[in-house]
């Protein structure tokens, strides 16, 4: 009997920070979590981290325990420089460990601007007590030219970046895996004039992690703030052949009960208009295996 060859290893997505704008710890946010944006993706033998919000601190502790003294290598996909997406980096313990290798990929006007996002907040004086130079890890920066080709590779894993509708600019990321595409679409205001471009970017994804910070009433007074409305996210996903939607970038004022209601509304719409689509809200510590 011929030996059966092993198939591709599964892809794992784990949520370490799911909140937008501001960390919001406390008893009212225990189930969904209060840390800001950080997602771990393991696929194709690569460790990919999306954003360095406060959730990157517990991720770092977990990685150190897992590796038990062996070197850690990862690629950090950096969407943009707003505080809730970078504030955890100075507390990412593996960055202080010799032998750690961190590749940071992001788009800013220049390569120096990309590096400056991480070095400026660790100035050793006004913003943080230790300077960036105290980090013992080998840290490299890959600058994406926003006017050029936004496709790149992490090892053998193909990744595409896409500018989103957000004040000051931000990037979404599409990661191609053997089990389907993962799309990170945080800090994107839905309903804008570029929605057809975004629809093309997310089309056919197995997993869409989408900014759904506001409900239908909140978005009326928050247009221009750069975040998604849950109803508009569901319409966008429904017209793009998406298999699974994870609502993300929860507003700091939304407690667990509010998010339960938001998910129920989104599931009701999916059940009516897009049968078969899986809908949930991101929770810290949860993992999805594709």
Question: SSE layout and pairings?
Answer:
Layout: E1 12-17, E2 38-43, E3 46-50, H1 56-67, E4 73-78, E5 101-106, H2 111-120, E6 138-143, E7 151-154, E8 157-163, E9 171-177, E10 180-185, H3 195-202, E11 207-211, H4 230-238, E12 244-248, H5 256-273, E13 278-281, E14 287-289
Parallel strand pairs: 3-4, 4-5, 5-6, 10-11, 11-12, 12-13
Antiparallel strand pairs: 1-2, 1-14, 2-3, 7-8, 8-9, 9-10
Helix pairs in contact: 4-5
What can you see in these coordinates?
With 290 residues, this protein is α/β, with parallel strands linked by helices. 20% of the residues lie in helices and 26% in strands. The protein is built from 5 helices and 14 strands. The longest helix has 18 residues. The protein starts with 11 loop residues before the first strand and ends with a strand. 44% of the residues are buried.
